[in-house]
Amino acid sequence: MEPLMQEKGSDFLSYLNHLVGRRRWMNCSDDETLVASGNGCCRHGVGPRQPVNPSINDFVTRREEELRVKLEIRHCWWRWRSDRCRLEFQIAIGSPPWEVGRRRRHADATLLRSYLWEKIRKIRLTRNMRAQADPWFSEYLLRISNGTEETIGDDYVRLPNDIVIAYTEDEKAMNKLIEDVFPSLHANAKSREYMSTRAILSTKNDHVDDLNDKMISRFPGEEKLYHSFDSIEDDLQNNYTIDFLNSITPNGLPPHVLRLKVNCPVILLRNLDPYNGICNGTRLMIRAFQDNAIDAEIVGGQHAGKRVFIPRISMSPSEDISLPFKLKRKQFPIRLSFAMKINKAHGQTIPSVGIYLPEPVFSHGQLYVALSRGVSSETTQILAKPNKRLINLGKAPRALSIEMF
């Protein structure tokens, strides 16, 4: 039987190589997998692995490893069909089920469907450790966190007047927010303690980029530009122009053009050396420029004051379903951190924090993360665009809309 099996296996490999050479992808429905053998390919239901004699088992083990190496097959099943006297392979090429499956698969993979859920106990915060010096602000944060703060129409929460900056359509409100968070910027531009205790938070990268552009223009010093090298993996026909690739900035990647100045604050986007504090989310200050490296100083945490070198590396977005290709960008893994996304500031303490909300936050949880970065109401400033509908009704002159409580 061994020569017969080798012949069929060889035909099977030749057929798969033909499919891959023509770049044809084999996709199956939820209840079917593709079955291929020496006699061709057909549809067949998933079946259990059948016990066979040792000679066939050894052959299949070798063939299975060869398939995985040649075609990068994620899943491979096989069974011996005694009624047809042949060996059938069931293979799945491409993304695993939890990436391309239906909604039912996504729901089944959640924690709520796990056998561990019945043993999980939800624990709520009872004290805010950052704002202990301001009891009123601490209680307000806990009400926001628990979703018990008084709402208007179940979708809006009123912000305290003493932490809100009056919104205007011109640049006056924005300039006031910047001045309140970064007072005497030119005099303290070189101070590590000054930069490590201040930041403006917002909801989206577009708003963050606009704020950082304004701040780097105000920051003293000569500007240094670093351009990235962009490409697409497996784009042999150059379907996308370089100008288009340079114009996009997927989540988790630095921009095509980095505008930097000496002593400006930046945040790291990749884990380079976690043992020495050079990891994703670390805030630094630029101290010197080189062509292929940046001399920076860590400004927070147990490694504060340490000088490190940031190299230029190749990066790709970890997960971006909005793009039909995989972008590869060679750039320094940093962004300006005058302003940051709310999610990026999770876990950090920012004594002097500004919050810019030109649109509603996603939920009360995101609002809590933004507010709880601060330590008191006196050092927390919010610039939020009010809801016009509620203003016309005279219900909430300074109300912030959120999706859910």
TrEMBL record:
User: What is the top-level taxon of the source organism?
Assistant: Eukaryota
Instruction: Give every DNA helicase Pif1-like 2B domain span.
Output: 243-287
Q: Which named protein is this? A: DNA helicase Pif1-like 2B domain-containing protein
Taxon lineage: Eukaryota, Viridiplantae, Streptophyta, Embryophyta, Tracheophyta
